[in-house]
Amino acid sequence: MRIFTGMYDSVLRWSAHRRAPWILGVLSFSESSFFPIPPDVMLAPMSVARPEKAWALASLTTITSVLGGVLGYFIGVLGLEIVLPLIEEAGYLPAYELAQDWFITWGFWVVLVAGFSPIPYKVFTIAAGAMAVALLPFIIASLLGRGARFFLVAGLLAWGGPRLEPLLRPYMERIGWVTVILLIAAVAYFSL
């Protein structure tokens, strides 16, 4: 079953579209507050296809992600009662409760690490608002964490550029399935 190679080829084609940066920005904004797909799935191939624009794309992704994180923060401040059942239904409740515990213990550093890691960032943005974490430190930690992640992705793939693409393509199925398995394992871990 070859699913991921076709998706990879499609994303590479989309990355060359003139509206691709807009789509990347919307995806990045949405992922930080409510959408499940991380912007890396567009940022990475766009950086391979357009290495000369990698830094601009990483900046766009960082800024829109932080703005989406601020939306998630205000969802936590104003509408936690509404979104908590959705968090539970999506299977993120254990991660949300863990995020709350981590905020109590580590504060600023939790946002910084969550911004960089593959942990669902939206859970931390909503938890930060619900726990009334100071907004300015939240924004600074988000800029540092998200920026480090997206500039690393864009920089590595721009550095490899077009010569990296033929090396990645044969392994797309394996990379895709390993990612799915890791995601399932993470969800199972946080659900238990």
Protein described:
With 192 residues, the protein is mainly alpha-helical. It has one domain (4-191). It is 81% helix and 0% strand.
Q: Tell me, what's the shape?
A: globular
Helix content: over 70%
Mean pLDDT: 83
- The rounded distance between the terminal residues' Cα atoms is 30 Å
Oligomer: single chain
Largest sheet: none
How would you summarize the topology of this molecule?
Elements (H helix, E strand, L loop, with lengths): L3 H12 L4 H12 L8 H10 L4 H25 L1 H10 L3 H14 L1 H9 L4 H10 L4 H34 L3 H20 L1
Helix pairs in contact: 1-3, 2-4, 3-4, 3-9, 4-8, 4-9, 6-7, 6-8, 7-8, 7-9
GO cellular component, one term: plasma membrane
Protein name: DedA family protein
Keywords: Membrane, Transmembrane, Transmembrane helix
Keywords:
192 residues, mainly alpha, 0% strand, DedA family protein
What would a concise description of this structure say?
The chain has 192 residues and is mostly helical. The protein has helices at 4-15, 20-31, 40-49, 54-78, 80-89, 93-106, 108-116, 121-130, 135-168, 172-191.
